[in-house]
Amino acid sequence: MNVLNIIERNFFLKELYPNGLSNFYMGRIELTAFDKLTLVLHFREIPAIEVAKWGRWGKDYNIITAELTGCMIKSIQIIDWQNNQRELCECEVELTTDDYILLTFRGTDWKVVIELKSLLLQRNTVYME
Description:
The structure is a single chain. By secondary structure, the protein is mainly beta. The protein has one domain. 5% of the residues lie in helices and 47% in strands. It is built from 1 helix and 9 strands. The protein has one helix spanning 11-16; strands at residues 7-8, 24-31, 36-43, 63-71, 75-79, 90-95, 101-106, 111-116, 118-127. The strands form 2 sheets. The protein has a 5-stranded mixed β-sheet, with no helix packed on it. The model has no long low-confidence stretch (mean pLDDT 92).
């Protein structure tokens, strides 16, 4: 299953990437004491549509970010995060028998495993890498 399919309020992301998300890296993980998680994914993939306010791909920006909020975190495991060097990562998505989402992000020498109830798109930004 593609991570795009489990993100709530994903309409805009589906317009940008109708074939799903595959070319991205994990740029930030932030935990709060209120059982919430912020996760920022950075997409290096050219979007299917042009967004006028962002300008042109390759000229004004070449990265699109998605800030996601996770709720009802059951568990999180971060292994060797210091080795994440903005490399493209793999993402596996599973639905558990108790209706939780199990996300596994991994790179060459690092891994993040998150079990949570929901993942919600908050905002998108762009920048030139």
